[in-house]
C-alpha cells in the first residue's frame, strides 16, 4: 500500500513538472508569435504554433484527468489498467542547432532540408511525438552585435519554417548566444 502511494506521489510530481514546463512553453510561443507593431505573422508559423498548443492542451487535460484521483485513494484497477495500456510518448531531445551561413547556403542551393540533414535523422525527428532542440541563436534581425565576443549568432525569423521541416516541437533558448544581439 505504501509503495503504491509513493508511486502515485512520484507520478504526480513528474506530471506537475511537465505541466509547468508545457505552460511556460505555451505562454512563450503564444507571446513570441503575437503580431508586433510593424510585423505580421506568417500563416504557416501561426498554424504550427496553434497545432502545437492544441497537442499540449490535449495532453495536459489527459494528465489532469489521471490526477483527479485523491492522494488517499489507491488507483482503481480500471485506472491502473488505463495507465498500463497507454501508448508511450516518444520524445527526441537533441543538442545544438545553428542556422549559420554554411548550412543555410546548402539549404538554399541544394535540396532544402535534405541538403543539411540525413533522411534517417529527419525521419527519426519527424516520427517522434515531441522533438526538442537547443537553438544556439535567437531568431531576430534586430539589435546590435555584442562587442568583444568572438562568435555571435542570430537568424532571420523567416527561417523559422526550417524547424517545422525538421519536426521540431519545442526549442530551448537557455544558452550563451541568446543575448548576442541584445535583448
Structure description:
With 183 residues, the chain is mostly helical. 48% of the residues lie in helices and 9% in strands. The chain has 6 helices and 3 strands; from the N terminus they run H-H-H-E-H-H-E-H-E. It has helices spanning 2-32, 43-66, 77-85, 101-109, 119-127, 161-166, and strands at 91-97, 130-135, 170-172. A 3-stranded parallel beta sheet has the order 1-2-3, with helices on one face. Strand 2, helix 6 and strand 3 (170-172) form a beta-alpha-beta unit. Helix 1 (2-32) runs antiparallel to helix 2 (43-66). The protein is elongated. The relative contact order is 0.12.
- Beta-strand content: 5-15%
- Outline: elongated
**What distance lies between the first and last C-alpha atoms, to the nearest angstrom?**
52 Å
On the 0 to 100 scale, the average pLDDT is 77
Radius of gyration: 20 Å
> What is the tally of beta strands?
3
Which spans of ≥5 residues are poorly predicted at pLDDT below 50? none
Quaternary organization: single chain
What is the N-to-C succession of helices and strands? Answer: HHHEHHEHE
- Class from helix and strand fractions: mainly alpha
Strand order of the largest sheet: 1-2-3
User: Can you summarize the main beta sheet?
Assistant: 3 strands, parallel
Measured as a percent range, the helix fraction is: 40-55%
Number of helices: 6
